[in-house]
Amino acid sequence: MQSKSQIINCYNLTAAKYADNYFHELDHKHLDRILLGYFANENKAKGQILDLGCGPGQTTAFVYALGVHDILGTDISPVMIEKARELNPNIKFETADMLRLQYADEQFGSVIAFYAIVHFTEDELATALTEIYRVLKPTGQFLFSFHIGNQIIHLDTFLNETVSIDFHFFEAETVIQLATSCGFKVVDIIERKPYPEVEYPSDRAYVWLEKE
């Protein structure tokens, strides 16, 4: 199992290059834009939106540009948060650990987390889902995405930096079982093929949950 410090180190080292490569990635992902736009519209009047694993803030900025300004972007990497603030000076960002969120019970109206669970084991994912459930208001919704599969990909280099990082893929059925065990109900689930030439060649899942 990789340590939290390994994850932080990876993204501290690669924050600038990551932003260069991925800050405009939504320009090439029409389904992501559709889902984020619809989710933001459905939840904008329910309270603050929390964006977990925001990286340099591309999803946070997309939602903010839709006119949903009550949004908080978070990431475990302090350097990535510095980059997010630099690129999006009008948006609030801060560091946060999805496995131990520093927020009050029922603080947020909704949560998004695009590819933010990729470094979790199954047990850690269960912990993260429990934490997200806790900080959501009653009937609050959670939209997140991940790579479909059952493999773990280990990298010793990422964006030309020396790291030690694992990427976990999940079967959709496993994620749904964990989510419903926490108390979530499933609003929708969508799977898609990767976009050629702009994404890693893995199938993707988008899961939309609601706190019961």
Automatic annotation (TrEMBL):
An individual GO BP term: methylation
Residue intervals of the Methyltransferase domain: 49-140
Sections of the chain in a coiled coil: none
Pfam families cross-referenced by the UniProt entry: Methyltransf_25
Entry keyword Transferase: yes
SUPFAM superfamilies xrefs: S-adenosyl-L-methionine-dependent methyltransferases
Keyword presence, Cytoplasm: no
Keyword field: Methyltransferase, Transferase
InterPro entries named among the record's database cross-references: Methyltransf_25, SAM-dependent_MTases_sf
UniProt superkingdom: Bacteria
MF terms in GO: methyltransferase activity
UniProt xrefs under CDD domains: AdoMet_MTases
PANTHER family: TRANS-ACONITATE 2-METHYLTRANSFERASE, TRANS-ACONITATE 2-METHYLTRANSFERASE-RELATED
Name this protein carries in UniProt: Methyltransferase domain-containing protein
